[in-house]
Amino acid sequence: MPILSRSQDGDKSRGGDKNRGGDKNRGQDWGSPRPYRPVFLEATLRERQEVEALGAGALAGGYGEAQGRARNALFTTCANPGCGTGWLHLWRSRQAPVFEGGWSCSFACTAARVAAAVRRELDGRGLAAESHQHRIPLGLVMLEQGWITSGQLRQALDAQRVAKAGRLGQWLVRQHAVSEQLVTRALGLQWSCPVLPLEFHDAEAFTVLVPRLFVDAFGALPLRMAAGQILYLGFADRLDPIVALAVERMSGLRVESGLVQESLFGAAHARMLSAKFPAAELVEAVSEQAAARVLSKSIEQARPVESRLVRVHDCLWLRMWRRLQSGPMPEHGSIQDLICSVGTH
Ligand SMILES: [Zn+2]
Fold first, then answer.
1. What is the model's pTM?
2. In this structure, are 115 and 49 located in the same domain?
3. Strand runs (DSSP E) across 39-165, as ranges?
């Protein structure tokens, strides 16, 4: 059964993520904005309640049509395709946990679904699209634009070679060949992405969208939300499409990546890292199986109304929503993250 087949129409498109051929062309292929998570969560809970109501009616009225309906509804309810338990299992009045839009009837079913999701995520590792893509060297971009002369480029390259440190853009600025703004514009051309402004950045407000570890390790800075549907994600000198895709899948928001002038980025990045983030647990798993076990246990314990798993480089990121949300921005205190690194075996 497709993971998201029981959710609303808008969410079906999300289920297609895994069919898009990994992270290929992420920058160009982010499609139209999708409905955000609350719709998804509400639908899940409403369905739970309907199932419960039917179940209660069936119990009260004995055998009959109501029970038949209840049984059908309940039968389709455990989201584990391999669920071996009968419909009687459902009288346990277990409404949570929900993982990727589907409720599971027992620990075994949660574990089976999580194991499948872990496999799905880890299978995407090391795809060609994730390896280094060749880009026009920054110096050539600037030369083509007529922003620097070949003499200036040679001088900066020489300095870089001798120092064995520093990026070309930094050397060009240091040697007064160009301004920092122009280097950022050139990086934008090199990565075919916009240069994002960094005004009125409310770091505290965005801590609920990207875990602190990813802000820190991958330099991904959530900057601004537009129309409750688009999230702008800023980077200093190179984009990270894998992080952007993960945040997009997790938040249900469309993520637009861009570059931010490096000196401005540094201050905002530091500010964000000192803000208060939602609770996150970091776990190291020795194998795929160990990761699936620890994630399943965590879901069974927290009994979230929704949870979701995505991969960020070599980590698995599990987010659990403990209650329904009223907007596109998760409420502080309602979410819990588990980030699990997976050893290669
Ligand atoms: Zn089951």
1. 0.73
2. yes
3. 98-99, 102-103
